[in-house]
UniProtKB/TrEMBL annotation:
Residues 81-368 form the SET domain. One of its GO terms (biological process) is methylation. The keyword Aminoacyl-tRNA synthetase does not apply. It comes from the Eukaryota. Keywords: Methyltransferase, S-adenosyl-L-methionine, Transferase. One of its GO terms (molecular function) is histone H4K20 methyltransferase activity. It catalyses: L-lysyl-[histone] + S-adenosyl-L-methionine = N(6)-methyl-L-lysyl-[histone] + S-adenosyl-L-homocysteine + H(+). The keyword Coiled coil does not apply. This is Histone-lysine N-methyltransferase SET5. It holds the Pfam family SET. It comes from Schizophyllum amplum.
């Protein structure tokens, strides 16, 4: 075992990287050791060389920022009079600012989701018919529960049940297209999302289902929802990975992206079987315009940005909320998001002030577990397209610099495998 000369190592790494351009640092390092079993090289050294040779992006310098804009005509008063959306700048995007004093412990507003792709344990309960398909609440045998509208004698039985008629009626915005009895092609899509634990795919499917049904039932609602979704912060999946790959050592699973896209297209536009086609036709009386279909499902400009948008905006438990999604991140948040009402399980969220908030102050939540170390928070937050410069991070950056002088070492101490798993589970990231 010997430490290779700098030049030999540079040559070997640049060869490996040019043969495997999509691989991140940890995998290149593993390949290096496998192809030179007599070399002793630390991953730190590999990283330094790859970065100094410009073979990977060296973190902080290059970050792709999401785009966002204010929603025109949004009536915030229906939630609260105490906050106002504001557009800051390109880097920070939009956010929420207090316009009246808010006291610590105060419930600022509560909000129901545009769509809900509930965490998988709740999803499993929905599929077993023991939690409401609409609001995810475990069913209590109140006598008010109702089944899906689909004919129960169908070969493709739908297990969906609802708390009461209200939840049934509300689910008319999406359910028919994701119902195994009414649109059998959707079963494969939902199973795939479940197997891959890919919340963003499931949430995006619900958004598309909602648009298709609004398109034929309620043109005004479609117009309003399109404005909302187009205004959400967005970043494509490739860009999301470019931001975080060098730091997290993740590889995008493009095969899964392709398969997810294919199943979405089958579910909403082109079921593989004749029976499936016939049933879908029964639901969709008026197809989306070709422009809107392209905007939602063109692989690069529609699908990958739609999934990226879900990843940026979904609340941790799987709901997509209009006002909540405005809030920016801080590792020292002044707002916490709670699920306080057992009757609405994961669906309804309550925004509670963690501190007094003065008029003019921005409302911020934490996108990641604030108990994690500085380095780990920074690494995870790059997926949202920013380096956190909250007061707590600025303070801790000084200490981190002493411990790890070069940025390339900022990742030290992270268990990448564990982090990757957590991210995938928590955010449906693929
Ligand atoms: Zn319900
Ligand atoms: Zn159903
Ligand atoms: Zn921070």
């Amino acid at each position: 075992m010997a430490s290779p000369a700098e030049e030999d190592l540079k040559k070997a790494l640049s060869d490996l990287k040019s043969q495997n351009p999509s691989l991140g640092i940890p995998k290149i390092h593993a390949l290096l050791l496998a192809s030179h079993p007599d070399w002793t090289v630390s991953e730190k050294r590999t990283r330094k060389i790859l970065q100094s040779q410009g073979l990977v992006q060296s973190g902080q310098s290059s970050i792709i920022v999401p785009t966002s804009r204010l929603i025109s005509g949004l009536d915030v008063k229906k939630w609260t009079t105490k906050v106002e959306p504001r557009y800051f700048d390109k880097r920070r995007g939009k956010g929420l600012v207090a316009v009246e004093p808010i006291s610590e412990g105060e419930l600022i507003w509560k909000e129901d989701p545009l769509v809900l792709a509930p965490e998988w344990d709740y999803f499993d309960k929905q599929v077993r018919g023991v939690a409401c398909w609409h609001c995810s609440t475990p069913l209590q045998h109140t006598g008010l529960e109702v089944p899906c509208r689909a004919d129960g004698s169908s070969a493709n039985y739908c297990p969906a049940r609802f708390c009461n008629r209200l939840c049934l009626v509300r689910s008319d915005k999406t359910h028919a297209l994701l119902c195994p009895a009414q649109n059998p092609a959707s079963s494969k899509l939902l199973r795939y999302a479940r197997d891959k634990q890919w919340l963003a795919l499931y949430a995006y499917a619900q958004v598309i289902a909602r648009f298709i049904l609004e398109n034929q039932n309620d043109a005004a609602a479609l117009k309003e929802d399109l404005e909302v979704v187009r205004s959400f912060a967005q970043i494509g999946m490739e860009e999301r990975f470019r931001n975080s790959a060098a730091v997290l050592g993740q590889e995008p699973d493009r095969e899964a992206w392709k398969r997810g896209h294919e199943l979405l297209v089958q579910t909403f536009f082109d079921p593989p079987t004749a029976d499936g086609k016939k049933k879908l036709k029964k639901i969709i009386r008026k197809p989306l315009s070709p422009e809107l279909e392209k905007e939602l499902l063109d692989y690069d400009t529609g699908f990958l940005s739609g999934i990226g948008l879900m990843n940026l905006n979904l609340e941790n438990h799987g709901g997509l909320y209009v006002l909540h999604s405005h809030m920016n991140h801080s590792c020292q948040p002044n707002v916490s998001v709670r699920h306080l009402d057992p009757r609405t399980a994961l669906s309804r969220i309550f925004m509670v002030a963690k501190t007094d908030i003065a008029p003019g102050e921005e409302l911020v939540v934490s996108y990641v577990d604030p108990n994690m170390s500085y380095n780990r928070r920074q690494a995870e937050l790059r997926q949202w397209g920013f380096n956190c410069t909250c007061p707590r991070c600025l303070e801790q950056a000084k200490d981190a610099k002493v411990a790890a002088p070069a940025h390339g070492e900022a990742r030290e101490g992270l268990d990448i495998g564990e982090l990757e798993r957590e991210l995938k589970l928590g955010l449906g990231v693929m």
